[in-house]
Design a protein that fits this description.
The chain is mainly α. 62% of the residues lie in helices and 5% in strands. The chain has a single domain, classed as Orthogonal Bundle (Arc Repressor Mutant, subunit A).
Length: 117
């Protein structure tokens, strides 16, 4: 017989496992669901940036930027171009993240025209 504590531990471990995004639609939805993910993705569409540059362009606090970048790196959507540099690391979107660039831009245009005040 399985104990309740064992089931709880199993569920906790499963929820802590890294999310695996498999389709373009899942990756795009993941980016669009979070306003910070969306803002960081949009900034990185043009050129690689440091966390400080992302902060200046978006106004997102550095602690949040660091957390979101870690999440996006785990999903292979962002890569660190200077992995051995602890300060001023440069980040860019991966080819995987660029696969849905046009869908992302279309979504942003739709939101700008549909939700204007």
């Amino acid at each position: 017989m399985i104990k309740k504590t064992d089931l709880r531990k199993e569920r906790t471990l499963a929820s802590k496992k890294r999310m695996i995004l498999t389709t373009k639609a899942q990756r795009l939805a993941y980016i669009l669901r979070g306003k910070n993910r969306r803002a960081i993705y949009q900034v990185l569409l043009t050129d690689p940036r440091t966390q400080s540059e992302i902060n200046q362009e978006t106004g997102i606090p550095l602690s949040n930027i660091s957390r979101v970048i870690d999440q996006l790196e785990q999903e292979a959507l962002i890569e660190n171009l200077t992995p051995f540099q602890s300060i001023g690391a440069l980040y860019q979107l991966t080819d995987l993240a660029l696969e849905f660039k046009s869908e992302f831009e279309r979504h942003v245009r739709f939101r700008q025209t549909s939700f204007r005040k």
